[in-house]
Amino acid sequence: MFDAAVFEGEEQLVTGERRSAAWFGATGRAGMIYRSWMRNQGFGSEVFDGRPVIGVAVSVSELAPCNAHLDRVAEAVRRGVWQAGGFPLVFPTMATGETLMRPTAMLYRNLMAMEVEELVRANPLDGVVMLSGCDKTTPAMVMAAASVDVPAVLVTGGPMLTGKYRGQDVGSGTHVWKFEEELKAGRMSQEECFFAEGCMARSNGHCMTMGTASTMACVTEALGMQLPGSASWPAVDARRFETAQAAGQRIVAMVEEGLRPSQVLTREAFENAIRVNAAIGGSTNAIIHLLAIAGRVGVELSLDDFDVLARAVPTLVNVMPSGRFLMEDFCYAGGVPVVMRDLVEHDLLHGSALTVTGKSVADNVAGAENWNPEVITPLGAPFQPAGSGTAVLRGNLAPGGAVLKQSAATPALLTHTGPALVFDTVEDYHAVADDPGLEVTADTVLVIRGAGPKGYPGMPEVANVALPAKLLKAGVRDMVRICDGRMSGTGYGTVVLHVTPESALGGPLALVHTGDRITLDVPHRSLTLHVDDAELDQRRQHWQPPENPYTSGYTWLYTQHVQQADTGADFDFLHGTRGHTIPRDSH
Q1: Which residues form the Dihydroxy-acid/6-phosphogluconate dehydratase N-terminal domain (predicted)?
Q2: SS3 per-residue string spanning 521-573
């Protein structure tokens, strides 16, 4: 048992002893209450002998299909914790699945981060293994870990198996947009779409394209918060569970070492993550999530860093939506360690950055081998050249910045001028998108506003709207679209996203009129509205902010405190690390 002499003062516990000792090592009534209630689950007295108490945070939910299998992953983690001499305790967290949640899972990312942070802080945990899957659950958990700063390791749930439809590989999300276009163009029937649904999602796991879920899994591995190779094992592969078991073993050692997220999540780690995101052709959503995580741990990171740091990095990974392969192929080719090894060897990563293994990035990836150079192309002959990653745009239409995923865009449209066709909401666009009389051409620039963090609310993934039906039937496959919302990482097209300030705040996007000419110039990183300042000032005088219908509850809190996309869309009161100080004892 614990030595009661070391539990006389909370200050001594916080600075010198395990957190769990304040609960399970306490004497008198308080200690009896904590231990006795835990023993109603059948735990023997030996688990209170001072061993590390490890929380296993599980975002399992049948309402979040990407996370529905995480209870089985949790069992593997528990095995590892027991094997390493720890005491594992599983606890549930909310799951924020983009597949079902309305108006958007992004509305609830910050709420989940708050929940996980407070659950870890409030309970007798010395370390935590966080199990995530859906694209918002991963950043939410890392945000929480950064804020509470107890030893933590992340395990993502893994991608689905490759979809198969009529002899071809199909990718989740990416083929949804393609099938929608085929349906609108009359080249695919509704019955064929119904059949394709089951072919696309044929196992547990998150999107098997390089959507935001896969991107965030890879990016958190690049940050050093996951074990090497953990990001890409398919959800149903036995090695997914081996990885989870290894994470359970590793977290016990991290507690003994005192290795915390603040030691891993350094400026160098974020630079590594940005460059890996460029190399994998990752989602634009990674920008918002990395900015939010950096804000939690106090690392200076700006929107422009994503452009500057990515320019020297070619796209190496030939995976949908930018390429033709899927995450299974990427995994079996060698996964993230191969990408990082190549970047380290060419001095494009900080090889000395510390990771949750207790070793450096360079040490972790030194032995990685590329088993399929068609999927992970060599840096000397990349899938796409350097500078083809996410571009950060500025101009009088986006003074706070906007982003565009070049690897998923049409090269001919990266420099384009055309007349705007403006919609105040995405619903307004959908209402007329199939109208054969809609006045739109391939040169038109679709402008969709009212989709920012405050304005929607939650900044939904609506920016890559399907093209008007009349253009699809005419064979048009892409056009410039501009929005203050987001795009699914599985999406593609020449879409300008995250326009800041958003229209609901009176940003320039709110002042655009149909017929105004707009120039997109990606090579020069500019987005220009060809309306003079005097006219814009006059329009601004007549602009009225949209009414906020939310007067109470969480959505009111969100709209009052959410920041803009260029700083991560986190709450203004959640920046910085609040630490793991032990809460007061009411017993």
Answers
A1: 51-364
A2: ECCCCEEEECCCHHHHHHHHHHCCCCCCCCCCHHHHHHHHHECCHHHCCCECC
CB within 8 Å of 28: residues ≥ 6 apart: none
User: How far, in Å, CA of 205 to CA of 171, rounded?
Assistant: 13
Closest CA to 148 of 164, 134, 128, 168: 128
Q: List beta partners, residue 163.
A: 170
Residue 274 is assigned to a structural domain of this protein: yes
Could you give the maximum distance between any two Cα atoms of the chain, in Å? 82
My answer on whether 468 and 335 are in the same domain is no
Would residue 578 count as lying in a domain? no
Task: Give tens-digit pLDDT for 31-82.
Answer: 999 999 999 999 999 999 999 999 999 999 999 999 999 999 999 999 999 9
First and final C-alpha spacing in the chain: 20
> CA-CA distance, 196 to 200, in Å (whole number)?
6
Which residues does 212 contact at the CB level (< 8 Å), separation at least 6?
98, 135, 283, 285, 286, 488, 489, 490
Q: d(Cα 339, Cα 447) in Å, to the nearest integer?
A: 36
Residue 309: partners with Cβ closer than 8 Å, 6 or more residues away: 271, 274, 275, 278
Give the integer Cα–Cα distance in Å for 255 and 71. 23
Whether 154 and 220 have beta carbons less than 8 Å apart is answered as yes
Map residue 582 onto helix, strand or coil: coil
267 HSE (CA, 13 A, CB side): 7
How far apart CA 288 and CA 113 sit, in angstroms, is: 14
Pair 381, 407 in one domain: no
> In sequence order, what are the residues at sequence separation of 6 or more whose Cβ sits closer than 8 angstroms to the Cβ of residue 159?
205, 206, 207, 208, 213, 214, 217, 232, 234, 235, 326, 327, 328, 331
Q: Which range of residues forms the domain containing residue 177?
A: 164-199
| DSSP state letter for 117 | H
**Same-domain check for residues 362 and 457:** no
Q: Are residues 55 and 45 in the same domain?
A: no
Band of pLDDT at residue 6, cut at 50, 70 and 90: very low
| Same-domain check for residues 145 and 267 | yes
Domain CATH code at residue 89: 3.40.50.2300
Q: Report how many domains make up the chain.
A: 4
Alpha-carbon distance values, 38 to 32, 41, 87, 124 (Å)? 10, 6, 12, 11
Q: Residue type at 580?
A: H
Is 586 contained in some domain?
no
Q: What is the CATH number of the domain that holds 531?
A: 3.50.30.80
Q: pLDDT band at 294, cuts 50/70/90?
A: very high
Residue 155 forms part of a structural domain: yes
Could you tell me if 320 and 418 lie in one domain? Answer: no
**Please, what's the b/e burial string for 213-252 (b: 16 or more CB within 10 A of its CB; e: otherwise)?**
bbbbbbbbbbbbbbbbbbbbbbbbbeebbebbbbbbbbbb
Q: Is the full-model pTM beyond 0.90?
A: yes
The answer on 181 and 264 residing in a single domain is: no
Q: Each residue of 393-436: pLDDT tens digit?
A: 999 999 999 999 998 899 999 999 999 999 999 999 999 999 99
